[in-house]
Amino acid sequence: MFIDIHRDSQPKKVTTADIHQKRYAKLFFVVGKEHKNYEKNRKFVEELHHDLEKKYSGLSRGVVVKGEFDGDGVYNQDLTEHALLIEFGGVDNNLTELYNSAEALADDFLVNTTGESRRFNRFPKQLIETNHFQKRNYS
């Protein structure tokens, strides 16, 4: 499996969800259709989207399929049958929202691959408070 993680340029009102009294950075799945693995990747991502929506309704913004005129249409998804490009929230989402979404996605992967659900340990508070995880200005 190959996972390519991006952040969307949409504003926080588009990229944030309140689910089970927690805030999440919404996930948006992008599938390129200009390669031989397209159909398998699309099916895999659509199943993942539907599974996430069962447990975390509103977490996924859906699946978009892009061809060569919508971007490059490949997005490194030609490397394997299970390649994902996931937009994790947007530029305004905070670390807590991103971590909540990462845990939800990891839990869904675990259920789909092993049949078990498990709560993941949170990132240690001291890591979150260090400069390593602070919002950076790349302008």
Provide a descriptive summary of the structure in words:
With 139 residues, this protein is α/β, with parallel strands linked by helices. It has one domain. The protein contains 4 helices and 6 strands. The strands form 2 sheets. Strands 1-6-4-5 form a 4-stranded mixed β-sheet. β2 and β3 form a beta hairpin.
Properties at a glance:
single chain; 139 residues; alpha/beta; four-stranded mixed beta sheet; two-stranded antiparallel sheet; 33% helix
- Cα-to-Cα separation, first versus last residue: 32 Å
**Low-confidence regions:** 120-139
The largest pleated sheet is described as: 4 strands, mixed
Bin the helical content: 25-40%
Number of domains: 1
Average of the residue pLDDT scores: 81
Q: Can you count the helices?
A: 4
The SSE string, one letter per element, is EHEEEHEEHH
Strand order of the largest sheet: 1-6-4-5
Number of strands: 6
Roughly what fraction of the amino acids lie in strands?
25-35%
Radius of gyration: 15 Å
Overall shape: globular
| Structural class designation | alpha/beta
Summarize the structure.
By secondary structure, the protein is of the alpha/beta class.
Topology:
Blueprint: E1 2-8, H1 12-15, E2 16-19, E3 22-25, E4 27-32, H2 38-55, E5 60-66, E6 83-90, H3 95-114, H4 125-128
